[in-house]
Structure to design on (108 residues):
């Protein structure tokens, strides 16, 4: 399934929908174990480095590193819904240097 676990921490989470979310390369994978099906969040332009799930169990934040091929591969954080794969916000595009390697939601 392409799980990146050798150089990242806190990179696999359970969603409210009983699916598992993790990242591999530019993709964030949402795996439904019951149906053995995957959905993919495909909006990142460089390798995803970190992931966090909001306490609502549906909202996800994923951070990407600096790419090496194109100027559009800048580090940023994308906040999105796991049920619809809709991007809610893009944070820090062009403001981070290096990679986004950790993030978390605050408890309400």
């Amino acid at each position: 399934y392409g799980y990146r676990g050798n150089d990242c921490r806190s990179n696999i989470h359970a969603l409210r929908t009983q699916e598992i979310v993790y990242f591999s390369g530019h993709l964030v994978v949402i795996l439904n174990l019951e149906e053995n099906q995957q959905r993919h969040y495909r909006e990142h332009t460089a390798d995803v480095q970190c992931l966090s799930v909001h306490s609502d169990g549906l909202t996800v934040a994923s951070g990407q590193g600096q790419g090496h091929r194109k100027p559009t591969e800048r580090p940023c954080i994308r906040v999105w819904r796991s049920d619809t794969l809709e991007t809610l916000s893009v944070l820090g595009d062009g403001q981070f240097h290096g990679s986004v390697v950790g993030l978390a939601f605050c408890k309400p």
